[in-house]
Amino acid sequence: MSVYLDHAATTPVDKRVLEAMLPYFSEKYGNPSSIYGFSDEARKAVEDARGKVARLIGAEPSEIIFTSGGTEADNLAIKGVAATCKGKRIIASAIEHPAVLDTCRALEKQGYEVTYVPVNKDGIVSVEDVRNAIRDDTILITIMHANNEIGMIQPIAEIGEIARERGIVFHTDAVQTVGKIPVDVCRLGVDLLTVSSHKLYGPKGVGALYVRKGTGIAPVLNGGGHEKGIRSGTENVPGIVGFGKAAEIAAAEMDSDAAKMRKLRDKLVEGALKIENSWLNGSRENRLPSNVNLGFKFVEGEALVLELDCNGICASTGSACSSKSLEPSHVLRALGLPPEYCHGSLRMTLGRQNTEEEIDYVLDVLPKVVAKFREISPFKKDFGEYEKSTGKCGPHVH
Amino acid sequence: MKNQQGSVVLMYTEKLMEHFRNPRNMGRIEDADGVGTVGNPVCGDVMKLYIKVKDNRIEDIKFETFGCAAAIGTSSMITELAKGKTLDEALEIKNADVAESLDGLPSVKMHCSVLAADALKAAINDYKSRKR
Fold this sequence. Notes:
Oligomer: heterodimer
Helix content of chain B: 40-55%
Number of domains of chain B: 1
Order of helices and strands of chain A: EHHHEHEHEHEHEHEEHEEHEHHEH
Mean pLDDT of chain A: 94
Distance between the termini of chain B: 44 Å
CATH architecture of chain B: Alpha-Beta Complex
Number of helices of chain B: 5
Number of strands of chain A: 12
Distance between the termini of chain A: 43 Å
CATH topology of chain B: Sufe protein. Chain: A
CATH architecture of the largest domain in chain A: 3-Layer(aba) Sandwich
Radius of gyration of chain A: 22 Å
Number of helices of chain A: 13
Structural class of chain A: alpha/beta
Strand order of the largest sheet of chain B: 1-2-3
Low-confidence stretches of chain B: none
Radius of gyration of chain B: 14 Å
Largest sheet of chain A: 7 strands, mixed
Order of helices and strands of chain B: HEEEHHHH
CATH topology of the largest domain in chain A: Aspartate Aminotransferase, domain 2
CATH class of chain B: Alpha Beta
Largest sheet of chain B: 3 strands, antiparallel
Number of strands of chain B: 3
Low-confidence stretches of chain A: 394-398
């Protein structure tokens, strides 16, 4: 059996989405910027998609700027605001996606000061911490809507109120939430919001930044002045059309998808937690209906993922982006989990096509896989002399 | 080793995956003559090697490892390389020999072969210090 449980990394393109895209490759291939009639179809298709994406998040179509994806939208939001504002201070959370964290670090090198607010043991940002981090020269707050590794939904609406009170631009990376839970830019009180198409059954290589009317933002890409001059470059018409179709489907089917995923998620969590010395990273409450992130003592996550792969199950150790590095997840570290426990994490993220049968299969395989590596491991009951060890990493002899 | 889709898992060689899935000499030796432990769970890998020595030769060797596929695969490989060798021959085994025997390791995982070679040295040193 093959079971795909990595929907937080990417989702398959919905067949209805693919069908909507196909005419825009070699039939209706016009450049939306051309003035002849042939390009009308492409132009109209882009505007139609803009409307659908806007509707999904409660925005006006004119507030949607199409980009090449979530990473570009995050870069545009943060660098674009930094370039137009006078202050030098930014607030972010400690558990942001690398697209936000690395952008903040790049700005730090240019002289900006970034405050990374911590999270509690469940992975939730404290609204008070954000309030206390604000200074007179704070220009931007960027806090993700839900975390990609542990799926914890952040108190964005409350932070939005504070940002508005203080007149600070507020950005949220909503890549993991849009299409999974209701997202309304007005209710959230955000000025900027990042969306990615391939996380909601649309194609890769396309995303959007919601820019609230009146928000000052400078372009990162200069050129022909597309997307109101905020994002130059000929529109990815088939991609945008697919994104729009995916947004339309998500708006119609989100509630039933979420209910189904929530049921499978709870079954998976409850079944997996029967394994000894296991725990759920993050809490049961305020969690995306699609996210399961488990910890297993005395085993290492990459080994689990590879062995699961050999059994036909696609899962991940955390963020797919960081699985090439040896560092334990910055998100799990931010929860206060001791580093020796951060290496044994397993993320399984559900999608609309997963079935109960698949979850039964995973619950049959997973305990055996964990048991296999615990048998190989020198640690059985505790980490012994290593408990609370803070030794430096790298090859060294004890 | 291939995954269910029939493709070789990208970052590792078939040989490493084979050792990872079917590790040789896995377990502990209760009356070991020498034990070497290297690594730190904080860093995500700990290797423990047990040796039985007879007539200055490694008669038996077993390992227990907490770590990634490369850590398990290199542990398995070093037990194969060391078994039956004299202590002096075993001390000559370099981390590059372990990596080479596995048809190579991704560069970010080379430290696992270093750990494996260090664990063997630590076990032999432990044996020597017990004898003293």
